[in-house]
Design brief:
Largest sheet: 4 strands, antiparallel
CATH class: Alpha Beta
CATH architecture: 3-Layer(bba) Sandwich
Strand content: 35-45%
Strand order of the largest sheet: 1-3-2-4
Number of domains: 1
Helix content: 10-25%
Shape: globular
CATH superfamily: Hepatocyte Growth Factor
Radius of gyration: 10 Å
Number of strands: 4
CATH topology: Hepatocyte Growth Factor
Length: about 60
């Protein structure tokens, strides 16, 4: 889901998911496995598949 990023965290997938769940601004997230980066998103753009990236939305 490109765009809508408002925060980047260094964490694991579960931490990324939980941070989005407890944050009222968060609408979706993308987790980059290789870099262990979590990108929280305030809006949801077009959904596409990218190798090594796991995404979720509320």
């Amino acid at each position: 889901m490109p765009g809508g990023d408002y925060r980047r965290l260094k964490t694991n997938f579960l931490g990324c998911y939980l941070e989005c769940e407890v944050n009222n601004i968060c609408r979706a997230f993308s987790y980059v496995r290789k870099k262990r980066e979590c990108w929280l998103k305030h809006s949801i753009g077009p959904v596409s598949v990218k190798p090594g990236v796991d995404s979720g939305m509320k």
